[in-house]
Amino acid sequence: MMTNLRGRLDGGDEFDITSTVSWHALAAHQQHMYSLHLRELFVMDPDRGRELVVDAADLHIDFSKNLITRETVELLAALAREAGVEEQRDAMFAGAHLNTSEDRAALHIALRLPRDAQLIVDGQDVVADVHDVLDRMGDFTDRVRGGDWTGHTGKPITDVVNIGIGGSDLGPVMAYEALRHYRHPGITGHFVSNSDPSDLVSVLAGLDAETTLFVVSSKTFTTLETITNATAARSWLLSRLGLSDGDSDAVAKHFVAVSTNADEVAKFGIDTDNMFGFWNWVGGRYSIDSAIGLSLMIAIGRELFDEFLAGFHAVDEHFRTAPLEQNAPAILALVGLWYSNFWDAQSQAVLPYSNDMARFPAYLQQLTMESNGKTVTAGGHHVTSPTGSIYWGEPGTNGQHAFYQLLHQGTWLIPADFIGFAQPLDDLPAADGRSMHDILMSNFFAQTQVLAFGKTADDIAAEGVPPKLVPHKVMPGNRPSTSILAPKLTPSVLGQLIALYEHETFVKAMVWGINPFDQWGVELGKKQAVDLVGVISDDPAPSPLPDSSTDAMVRWYRGMRGRAT
Ligand SMILES: O=P(O)(O)OC[C@H]1O[C@H](O)[C@H](O)[C@@H](O)[C@@H]1O
């Protein structure tokens, strides 16, 4: 019986990707590649550094320091073709219900289509819908930024607090940080996500209720953390303004919502005139370019938000039209899959050489790991190969002084994406008068060089290092990296980078046959947390819990909280 099958669009006709001709060809090719060092690959093909490179919009991506040859790229493209990646990409762009377990389209690409484009899905012109919301967001943004939208006491807004979690937080906060240089000087953004009250308390501590606007962002408007934080924020606001609990006028001036669920928004007490909607075909982790980006739009203004969307769209068009061998998201995905499926790599480092991009790895964790952390195919069968990698990272050069030791000399193969920019947004002269940004980027180039080429025992011995120390100083090299360069960190370039990884995630999922648009794995823990609140906080002490670990811990916790055990 075939148990390990690959999901197809219709969830029925499946085949095992690991038994395809291209998969076997790649496995054989890996045996050959395993014996070659990147040093040799550069000797065998001296132009690879100029030619294993793909340009997509403003992104200049060098794949040459990967454990690949031009033949590898051809074999990987053949695998993608055999997996039907191109057909499924086209189906996604046409609005097919690719999210089969929830019977929905995955149409984030529609969020950045230009105003004059047309995309009819299920009889509805989604481009017109998207631009209606963008226009409403733009008008609201102009009023807040211009001081025309005022709080309950008539003062303009100086602080915007986005309350949301997961996709309703990670995108907004990441982009807000990344686009620091482009923000309105008189309005400060804040982000509250955690149900740990410390998050909200520490943000509110510095705020003046009269000039604070809360943007409650939640696709479902039922997420416990968000509703709990929003409820506490509403109480704080009303008490600071000296108003009673039911003062809906004040709430309407200080709370707006971003959601797909108007009923729940109204129930919370937010005027639905102040609600910005989106659609069930926008997944949470694909939503920063929807109304979920409202706090970002307030920070950078509607024109720059448009540029941000145009950046996404430029990479969408590249992804939609470039042949797989020259397709940046596809190659990024296939090279990543090459390591996880043929070289046993478990993780993927993402290393932005930009302090403002500090939250980008965390953003990618949700995008990639919530999408591709799956053990069953779209058709419900067990997968036959490892799926989603573990994404992690920190900005360079901080990472260099922390975990790069393991990248350079550790026993794991960890492919790394380096992200860097040519033109700085901030620069200062270093002690020698050179640009600090050039020093930062010299580290970028040096690290990718050392990872690839290392340093041999002979070279080290020739430097007069005592023999006892030589093995410790050997730098094995042959450690893969991809360098993603862009002229400058602009709103457009940030949109391009996000779209690059969105489509990278998609291509991998299509080869693995999994659905990257659902996230059933996060549901059970949420439900059990709700069940356990009463168990840990109510009296009398609970009856024995099913497992001894939770039972003992809950009683220990109750004791520490002064409750009956
Ligand atoms: O936007 P919300 O409906 O509040 O959802 C917020 C987040 O929570 C869920 O648990 C999902 O795992 C995420 O994909 C989602 O982004």
Walkthrough of the structure:
By secondary structure, this protein is α/β, with parallel strands linked by helices. The protein is built from 22 helices and 13 strands. It has helices at 21-34, 38-44, 48-51, 70-82, 85-93, 126-146, 170-178, 197-204, 224-240, 248-254, 262-268, 294-300, 302-321, 328-342, 360-372, 404-409, 436-453, 457-462, 470-473, 491-512, 523-537, 548-560; strands spanning 53-56, 59-62, 120-121, 124-125, 159-163, 188-192, 212-217, 255-259, 275-277, 347-352, 390-392, 416-421, 481-486. Strands 1-2-13-12-10-11 form a 6-stranded mixed beta sheet, with helices on both faces. It has a 5-stranded parallel beta sheet with strand order 6-5-7-8-9, sandwiched between helices. The chain has a two-stranded antiparallel ribbon with strand order 3-4. Strand 8, helix 11 (262-268) and strand 9 form a beta-alpha-beta unit. Helix 6 (126-146) crosses helix 12 and helix 12 (294-300) crosses helix 13 (302-321). The protein is globular and about 80 Å long. Mean pLDDT is 96; it is low at 1-7. 6-O-phosphono-alpha-D-glucopyranose is lined by residues 165-168, 218-220, 223, 226, 284-285, 370, 519, 522. 6-O-phosphono-alpha-D-glucopyranose (G6P) binds next to loops.
Task: Please render the helix and strand layout as text.
Layout: H1 21-34, H2 38-44, H3 48-51, E1 53-56, E2 59-62, H4 70-82, H5 85-93, E3 120-121, E4 124-125, H6 126-146, E5 159-163, H7 170-178, E6 188-192, H8 197-204, E7 212-217, H9 224-240, H10 248-254, E8 255-259, H11 262-268, E9 275-277, H12 294-300, H13 302-321, H14 328-342, E10 347-352, H15 360-372, E11 390-392, H16 404-409, E12 416-421, H17 436-453, H18 457-462, H19 470-473, E13 481-486, H20 491-512, H21 523-537, H22 548-560
Parallel strand pairs: 5-6, 5-7, 7-8, 8-9, 10-11, 10-12, 12-13
Antiparallel strand pairs: 1-2, 2-13, 3-4
Helix pairs in contact: 1-4, 4-14, 6-12, 7-12, 7-15, 12-13, 13-20, 14-20, 15-20
The protein binds 6-O-phosphono-alpha-D-glucopyranose.
6-O-phosphono-alpha-D-glucopyranose is lined by residues 165-168, 218-220, 223, 226, 284-285, 370, 519, 522.
